[in-house]
Amino acid sequence: MVKDKIRPSLEEIKPYVPGKNPDVETVIKLASNENPLGPSKKAMSAIRAGLKKINIYPDQHALLLKDALSRKLGVSPAHIIVGNGSDEIMQFVTAAFLNAREQVITSKHTFSTYEFVTRVFDGEPLFAETRDRAHSLDEISGAVTLTTKLIFLCNPNNPTGTIFTHKQLVKFLNQLPKGVIVVLDEAYREYVESKDFPDSLALIKEGRDIIVLRTFSKIYGLAALRVGYGIARPEIIKYLNLVKLPFNVNGLAQIAGAAALKDTAHVKRSIKNNKAGKKYLYKELDALGLDYKKTEANFIFVSLKQNADEMFLNLMRKGVIIRPLTSFGLPQAIRVTVGTPAQNKKFVEALKKVL
Amino acid sequence: MVKDKIRPSLEEIKPYVPGKNPDVETVIKLASNENPLGPSKKAMSAIRAGLKKINIYPDQHALLLKDALSRKLGVSPAHIIVGNGSDEIMQFVTAAFLNAREQVITSKHTFSTYEFVTRVFDGEPLFAETRDRAHSLDEISGAVTLTTKLIFLCNPNNPTGTIFTHKQLVKFLNQLPKGVIVVLDEAYREYVESKDFPDSLALIKEGRDIIVLRTFSKIYGLAALRVGYGIARPEIIKYLNLVKLPFNVNGLAQIAGAAALKDTAHVKRSIKNNKAGKKYLYKELDALGLDYKKTEANFIFVSLKQNADEMFLNLMRKGVIIRPLTSFGLPQAIRVTVGTPAQNKKFVEALKKVL
Question: N or C: which end of chain A has fewer CB within 10 A?
């Protein structure tokens, strides 16, 4: 029996529930917060130019990409680690810092990978209550105990698009005991419009024990390539590197990431499309009298008065895939990615038919 | 102090020592057992065709690639897991099966990632003596204790190119206690000429607790893309999947792997080149009176009477990068990849000058 051989902690691990991919071309996918404008053309060209050398192992230190990020972010390459998606870096964090039975705090109804990487390293996840659908930093600091090692917070929050501010974050960090490391998952940072959003890099430069995660999967349109990065004090990055398999980031992702960073026109277009899409969707959701959250990201959280899985199926029959939030513990809510104008319109029309 | 926060087991983790990449184009790299004929052209075309959709997350189950592998190998897709390189699957094995302080056996002087993935999950690595530079299955079974959970064996062995046979493997497996899982790393399997090489898939079909690892990084020429696979009974694969991050294998790697599998002409050319290169190198190494091992892989192990790191530097000055085996615990041995005829000749000429 193989079951007798597994690690006991595996019994608590739940499989990830992804956004559904379309079965036919006419169906549109607004389920995984991908960039509806597609990948950066500069990234695509860089990949084409690199194809002849894919028989060679990638740079294990991702030096060129770290160099490009370093110049963009104004931190040294020693402040940066690159991962096979930023979710891999979440696992480096637990691999490097989490001992068995230490506590990891996150919020209820948030990205499930924080729980996953905690369980893989035998930690104890604790889920703080949210307030008004957003992270409650008060609930979280109230939950801290002597065994708390890590806190995972996504900001903007997935799936609600809400944020906490710089001021709120500083107050929160000041209350924490010294042994705690805070991971700030800023996957949607580039979409944020609020002026009060945390300047997390400034907090790293102050010497705080925080790890900031960002990704090329969202605004840069490279989700298929799996490349994200972490920023922290070099002393922290050193230990994350120690638990990293040498060739974790594929060579085409390294090349494409560096090219996408330089494609500021693509980023600007993507932000503009998102702003316009938010405005349109707010108006239509208001007109439908639906309860939704104003978002700082590229998706909108909508509360329903009906079962989300049913809504998902009904919308799919009309050609639109959204994300039912049942796997987030919210069986009466959905999350919809802001798409192109045509996609947003198709979603609204489908929604009107199924409500 | 960050050091106070890390997991104690990290103190034993040593960074991976990779093959050096050339600084200038005129230098040839025979250090990492990459395919000197380059990537499959079919794989390159498949990537070009897939570029427009790299803004979409990859299939978390790698269904198309598993399907292609399933047909090629004659096992069901449920027998297969795909990894971000086969080294990631090594880590899935320890994540799924290794409890803290359980023992993991491998040989001295072999691929270092077995030790790495053991330490990440707080296991106790034990290194069995080799015999005549090859794995000694007797030494390994003699080292098994009540706490032994896993055994990692690469066959052909890296860095010596030696193999153990089907008969030897079956005898070895029959002696093992029920609780032990054996990982057979067959990264170089496609290069094997010996008729006595284990039919490991037949052993899986018999219901043995073995996990076979293979890769697209070697003969298929896709090292930059990071894609390898594991084959085992579905009951074992199920648990490996449970500890896998959802989007571990990038989309271009999935596409390219499936295309490379179909490119039998590229594989045949690569085998032919390797056979001819082995023959040429044997002859030249014999003429130089050097002590080397006959290989079943795409590299040759050479024992020196001098320091390998010095030899590495001297050869690099002549334009050839090989792998000094100091990091394998063999400070007087090198490993050289079988290259193209021109590369092999350049290596031999450089060697003659520096010996």
Answer: N
**Is pLDDT at B123 greater than 80 in this prediction?**
yes
CATH fold for domain A19-39+265-354: Aspartate Aminotransferase, domain 1 (3.90.1150)
B101 touches chain A (CB under 8 A): no
pLDDT tens by residue, B197-247: 999 999 999 999 999 999 999 999 999 999 999 999 999 999 999 999 999
Class of residue B31 by CB neighbours under 10 A (exposed 0-12, middle 13-18, buried 19+): buried
Domain with CATH 3.90.1150.10 in chain A: 19-39+265-354
Sorted by sequence, the CB contacts under 8 Å of residue A301 that are 6+ apart come out as A133, A159, A160, A161, A292, A293, A295, A325, A333, A334, A335
The boundaries of every CATH 3.40.640.10 domain in chain B are 41-262
- The DSSP letter of residue A296 is S
> Helices B63-73 and B251-262: crossing angle, nearest 10°?
20
Could you tell me the strand order of the sheet in which B333-337 lies? Answer: B291-292, B299-303, B333-337, B323-324
CA distance B263 to A45: 25
Is A298 an interface residue toward B (CB < 8 Å)? no
Chain A within 8 Å of B2 (Cβ-Cβ)? Answer: yes
- For residue A102, the surrounding DSSP H or E stretch is none
Range list for CATH 3.90.1150.10 in chain B: 18-39+265-354
CA B142 → CA B65, B128, B146, B291, distances in Å?
Answer: 39, 9, 12, 29
Torsion region of A285: left, alpha or beta (phi above 0 gives left; psi -120 to 50 gives alpha): alpha
The residue in chain A having the minimum alpha-carbon distance to the alpha carbon of residue B250 is A225
Other CB atoms within a 10 A radius of the CB of residue B8 amount to 8
Per-residue b/e over B285-323, b at no fewer than 16 CB within 10 Å?
beeeebebbebbbbbbbbbbeeebeebbebbbeeebbbb
Q: Is B83's Cβ below 8 Å from some Cβ in A? A: no
Question: Would you state the pLDDT for residue A239?
Answer: 96
Assigned CATH for A41-262: 3.40.640.10
Q: Where are the alpha helices (DSSP H) in B183-300?
A: 200-205, 234-242, 251-262, 264-287
Put residue B210 in one of left, alpha, beta given phi > 0 → left and psi -120 to 50 → alpha.
beta
Task: Determine how β-strand A103-107 pairs with β-strand A333-337.
Answer: unpaired
Q: How confident is the model at residue A1 (pLDDT cuts 50, 70, 90)?
A: confident
Cα–Cα distance for residue pair B29/B331, rounded to 1 Å? 20
The one-letter amino acid at A6:
I
Alpha-carbon distances, residue A25 vs A40, A321, B209 (angstroms): 21, 12, 42
The answer to whether the Cβ–Cβ distance between B32 and A247 falls below 8 Å is no
Joined together, the tokens standing for residue A144 give: 């801290």
Nearest alpha-carbon partner for A348 in A278, A285, A291 = A285
DSSP type of residue A22: P
- Decide if A207 touches B, using CB distance below 8 A: no
Are β-strands B228-231 and A320-321 bridged in parallel, bridged antiparallel, or unpaired?
Answer: unpaired
Q: Domain B18-39+265-354 falls in which CATH fold?
A: Aspartate Aminotransferase, domain 1 (3.90.1150)
Q: Is the dihedral of CA B157, B161, B166, B168 positive or negative?
A: negative
Q: Which residues contact B259 (CB under 8 A, 6 or more apart)?
A: B40, B42, B43, B45, B46
Residue B93 three-state SS: helix
Contacts with B84 from chain A: Cβ below 8 Å: 84, 226, 245, 248, 250
Handedness of CA B113, B117, B120, B124 (dihedral sign): negative
Q: Which of B296, B75, B72 is nearest to B195 (CA)?
A: B296
| Residue A256, min C-alpha distance to chain B (Å) | 10
